[in-house]
Prior knowledge:
Layout: H1 2-21, E1 24-25, E2 32-36, E3 41-43, E4 47-48, E5 57-63, E6 73-79, E7 82-84, E8 95-97, E9 109-111, E10 120-128, E11 131-142, E12 149-153, E13 162-167, E14 176-181, E15 192-195, E16 200-203, E17 212-220, E18 223-231, H2 239-279, H3 291-304, H4 315-319, H5 330-334, H6 352-357
Amino acid sequence: MELSFVRFCCVLLSFLAGLVAGLEITSTGSTSIEKASGESVKLDCQFTLAPQDSGPLDIEWSLLSSDNRNEDKVVILYSGDRAYENYYDPMKGRVHFNAADPKNGDASIVLTGLRSADSGTYQCKVKKAPGIRSRKMLLIVMVKPTKPRCYIEGLTHEGKDITLKCISQEGTNPLRYNWDRITGSNILPASTFEDPVTGSLNVKNASASASGTYRCTARNRVGTDECTLQLKVAPPPNTAGIIAGSIIGVLLFLLIIAIILFCCCRARNRKKYEKEICNEIREDVPPPKSRVSTARSFTVGSQRSSLGSMSPSNLHEYALKPQYDKIPSSEEFERPPSHAPLPPPSGARMAVPNLSRMGAIPVMIPAQNRDGSIV
Length: 375
């Protein structure tokens, strides 16, 4: 009889526990999930109902705000035996319930085409009066590293410090970089120092043995990518020869400029001098006299000359010269050369007494320059 009483108590306690427990969420999986962008994820939310849960079933998924001043964003709803999957515009077409009919105990949802903005804390809330239960899950959407860019900083000469750089423009932290050499020995030179955070590889006092092909790998928890570069360490250049060549080049350039300036100045001065010569009026040389004025001057001079100053021996030479004792008329000026009076024959010589009887007058003819001026 005592055994029957104990069994009765256990059944009663179980019944009372069921009345108190009611609605329960039974999912026990991880509450933190990391996924790469572009992938899909299932947020699990399984539940059970109690007989006393007789009210309508409501399921609500929301993205909780990290700031208490902002409201939570409802992502998807199930209410009145109907699912509202396009409730949140940023996830429109990318979120849906995992089960065709969530009221059977599966309130899980599936997110597709994950983006970095989808990261956050999601809450699953199941309500069926009088019961209400909720579950929170943290979703971290990580971006895979994009293809990094490899480049060299510094001169690739022997004895210099060379820095190999590697950087990925996109990628969720923590992002790490790793360098290795893929030609020859895969071991990095002993003089190198690697920084996995900044992605730099410093080669101190580089030598020809450091030449080769290097690879940089960028990675985080959701993906990797890499780039390569070729390092060739060359002997140092002939600095003295470069300096001497530069100096000679500069001097030649200056010499050419000086020659050009000299030629330009000389040509300019020459043109200026020629222009001044053309415009200059010479006042020391009088213009040539006309035949009429010359003839008159000769006549007046001849009358003033003394006959006694001339000897009889040279009278015949002056007698043969053209006479200027009268002024030529305009007809004689206009007479063509064919009508000009012919001079006496060269072989004929006349005596001085005959010239005097003929009325000849001794005349002294002054000397003249080429321009016609009297000396």
